[in-house]
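User: For my dataset I need records formatted as: sequence, then structure tokens, nothing else. Please produce one.
Assistant:
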Amino acid sequence: MYLPLAPAFRQWTRNPGLLLVAVLTLALGIGASTAIFSVIHGILIRPFPYPDSEQVMFVSGGLRDEPGASFPLSLPELHDFQEPNPSFSSLGGAMDGQFTVTGIDQPTQVKGGYVSPQTLELLGVPPAAGRLFQPTDDQPGAEPVCVLADRAWSRFFQRRPDILGKSVLLNGRSFTVVGLMPPDFKFWDAYLYVPLAHGIPAELRLSRTVRFGIWGIGRLAPGITPETAATHLSTLLDRAKAATPGTPEGATIRVTPLAQNVGNRIRGPLYLLFGAVGCVLLIACVNVTNLLIARGVVRQREFAVRTAVGAGRRELIAQLLWESLPLALLSAAVGLLLALGILRALLVLIPAELIPAEATLRLNTPVLVFSGLIALASTTLSSLVPALQISPGRVHDSLRESQRGTGGLRSSRLRSGLIVAEVTLALALLIGAGLLVRNLTRIAATDPGFHPQNLLIARIDLPESRYASH
């Protein structure tokens, strides 16, 4: 059955007030849902812009009896795991570092990363200029080299192309710049990268009991699951424990997708907020459904005439569903405009430290597809309920009821039921919001035991190269 879009729009132009109310009602739910989904997608689902990022794993130590416990690897353990390993196509390690950059206009302390050569390579992002680390860079006694992130290159060296091969002073030591990363590469939220060997004192590199915060970063081999990789690495760990004491009792290895290890502090609140805006969207759908049922009652005579000339129930339902398409298009368009504003507000409210450095929170293609799907689903759901009330027999009965002034007994009962559902959802949201406000009030009123006004915290790091005995 061919139904052009223009007649569907004309049906709505006969009652522009109803169209405006329906569009604004659905757009509010669609906009809020789209904004929250864009945050969830950017922080929890796909926070990293690396090729095949779902294959990049986070490797850490754990305890069999404590599922939530995790601890870093020692350098010898990382080397054990880097031996020919069928579970990973490549495996490296990374560790936090603090660097004081001197020799520039204003000495500045920045966050950096001590990384093994495999780490930057397995992420699959080539440097914008120069090269990445080579295995020889990570050997004891190797010449100190570093790779600059784009923000360090821009902030400290004004993106000068001649910085390659030049020396920079990091913690009082001279490092040669061998590579520059592209602007969208923000791994480890670091300004610069230094080979892992430079972050561990030479006398402790063989120790299995001293852990310096090394976390494994690996890319799974084709066909290997995280569970299989964890089992294999745990077997290697057990062998090392038998040969060398010092590993915690009951220790095991955990292998999880890298995306699961970011946003943990905000994961629960985001899902809770997504459920809340889902309820708002359901309330909007119920509202619009009631409006469309009332509109359908007014059009009962039209449906009766169409039935009399041969239209069946399927044709009438198809007509109503087709007429929901303009509503979906307009609601999605207005919803996207609202989503932009809501997203900006969320970015102001969410603390920056809870958002991964690599995350890009915007209305990208997956978010737009999600918005289009929920717009189509919402309008279809709102139109389907009144459409299913149509049958040739019911149309004639409703026509007789409307002629007597009853307004349609079946439609009245359905509208009453939808109103009850709407009020129930609204009360659930109000109760949840009230509990949240009460908890926030209690947290804000908590006495820390001291007066925090005008108190500051300062940290001073002395370069080991100049203050080794202090």
